[in-house]
């Protein structure tokens, strides 16, 4: 858990990081959050007006009720009035938001999306998530579930997914998928460099190690990032053909392997998206669809969360993010 | 070409239909449009204030310049200042809009989308087109090309498409695709009913005839609409997972075969879209993603075009549509 005080120019005034003791229950976690926030108060209490708290949550938020409806890592939080509890304990406005939407909003405010009002953020981590900013604000969708980009179908008869479908993007472009594909390549016996890395790191083999193998020229590792890029290209091409947004920001840990997967991604996009291609002559005038890496990295979500109370208010201010 | 006078309650006061003499050139067509509009003036001139003219165009519009950038059926119109010409000839405000966006706006105003502010319209005709309404207004995208839903990839290694990609939705869910699949089934020799229809109608075999074969129980015709439904389900599932819009309206001539393709479409959607499925318990409360047929049919685009000058103005009014 990271808690930060952020001013209205986007400066991180102070940050606190601490492990989230989820096992001790939701009441405990909420007390920890409000305790950390109180710890940060002296940082800005005399120089800034405190607008409120934005909280990025890895799950689906019920915005009306201020609860966390469905979050894999927060079992037992359903129906718990997180927002009301925090507001009562702190006496300020609290806004909950899905963490991927926070990251998208952060990039719009201070990162790759500063010059646009609409963008799509796709996060390649353990899973694949996403969020949209439309008209400068997070886009929630009718049931608050917008941004499930990891479950877009890219290969209709492809690998089965825990969501019940097959061939979801998450099965090809997440860190988990990269690890699975690496182990499959090793099992085939045609990837000596990966096999060596797997033997060395065992269960710890992650996307970064596969990326390093690809950089050293291991063809099997290169092929894995070809698949990452190709499937991302299909998914982004579909989004671009549909929405023609000005910007798509790729974040999450796998984005560190940008050099390995982005050539295949761009090739696939050019082949598949008539809308992306049509923007080509205008790309220099910023009147086309762009794809870029996150510029805020891990801070995107925290900064986006801090932005929420500012969007709800209008004057010069300061807010806290979790 | 159809020209209509529409009042601000959505009533068609009067409609004129005439063939569009495209071969006689753009200046001629524009004069025909303004002539037809003048013909309609007496219908409402004494009872209504005339707000302006909305024009639905089957192509990509440059909204700033008021030109038609790229339209397969309007060669030679590039850079021709259509909007300026019409405004000069008529002395009122003229708004150009892509025809699929007009249909989406029409459905939002008076049709299936009356109760929502955001929707996606997908039009299954000779090709597959689409349009989005976001916040009650047409969504254009950064280069004005949003809504190219026919070129979303549904089968990555599927049938080649004129756009340069493979496996585009248009290759499976358009009237053209239905005809192609019917001819392929006949060539295989396993579709006697279709073969008989093909022999009877020759080059005239269209989606309606294949639909009739499916209704009579021809398995090969049924299989074609399975493909239509399945690929639509993949494309809509991707859109719903990404955007979680409240409504998707299916229009165009192929929508008449709704009974033949919608079961496969809904099955695929349920299998593929975690966001669609999650809405299930709330569907009765209108807090979920819905898929429905057009309720305005061929009038959707005309009514949507008529809505454009009303959205640009605010008071009680009347406008004309082309």
Describe the protein in words:
In chain A, strands 2-1-12-3-6 form a five-stranded mixed β-sheet. The first copy, chain A, has a five-stranded mixed β-sheet with strand order 9-8-7-10-11, with helices on one face. With 322 residues, the first copy, chain A, is of the alpha/beta class. Chain A starts with a strand and ends with a strand. Chain A has helices at 26-44, 82-90, 99-110, 170-173, 175-188, 192-201, 207-215, 219-243, 258-272, 274-278, 299-312, and strands spanning 2-7, 12-17, 50-57, 60-62, 67-70, 93-98, 119-124, 128-134, 137-138, 247-251, 290-293, 318-321. The model of chain A has no long low-confidence stretch (mean pLDDT 91). Helix content of chain A is 42%, strand content 19%. In chain A, helix 3 (99-110) crosses helix 11. Chain A folds into two domains: 2-105 and 298-321, Nucleotidyltransferase, domain 5 (2-Layer Sandwich); 116-293, 2-Layer Sandwich (Nucleotidyltransferase, domain 5), CATH 3.30.420. In chain A, a hairpin with a 3-residue loop joins strand 7 and strand 8. Chain A is built from eleven helices and twelve strands. Chains A and B meet through strand 8, helix 8 and helix 10 of A and strand 8, helix 8 and helix 10 of B.
């Amino acid at each position: 858990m990271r808690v930060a005080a952020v001013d209205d120019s986007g400066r991180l005034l102070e940050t606190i990081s601490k492990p989230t003791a989820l096992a001790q229950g939701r009441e405990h976690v909420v007390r920890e959050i409000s305790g950390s926030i109180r710890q940060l108060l002296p940082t800005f209490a005399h120089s800034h007006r405190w607008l409120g708290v934005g909280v990025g949550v890895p799950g689906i938020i019920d915005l009306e009720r201020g609860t966390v409806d469905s979050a894999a890592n927060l079992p037992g939080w359903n129906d718990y009035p997180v927002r009301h509890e925090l507001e009562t304990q702190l006496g300020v406005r609290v806004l909950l938001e899905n963490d991927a939407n926070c990251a998208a909003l952060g990039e719009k405010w201070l990162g790759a999306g500063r010059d646009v009002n609409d963008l799509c953020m796709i996060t390649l981590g353990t899973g694949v998530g996403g969020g949209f900013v439309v008209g400068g604000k997070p886009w929630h969708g009718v049931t608050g579930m917008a941004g499930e980009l990891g479950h877009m179908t890219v290969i209709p008869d492809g690998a089965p997914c825990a969501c019940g479908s097959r061939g979801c993007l998450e099965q090809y472009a997440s860190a988990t998928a990269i690890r699975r594909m690496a182990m499959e390549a090793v099992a085939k016996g045609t990837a000596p460099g990966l096999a060596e890395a797997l033997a060395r790191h065992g269960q710890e083999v992650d996307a970064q190690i596969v990326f390093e193998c690809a950089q050293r020229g291991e063809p099997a590792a290169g092929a894995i990032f070809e698949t990452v890029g190709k499937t991302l290209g299909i998914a982004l091409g579909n989004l671009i053909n549909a929405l023609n947004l000005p910007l798509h920001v790729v974040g999450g840990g796998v984005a560190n392997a940008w050099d390995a997967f982005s050539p295949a991604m761009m090739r696939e996009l050019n082949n598949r998206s008539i809308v992306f291609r049509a923007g080509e002559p205008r790309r220099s005038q910023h009147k086309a669809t762009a794809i870029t890496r996150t510029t805020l990295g891990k801070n995107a979500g925290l900064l986006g969360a801090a932005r929420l109370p500012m969007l709800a208010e209008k004057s010069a201010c300061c807010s806290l993010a979790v």
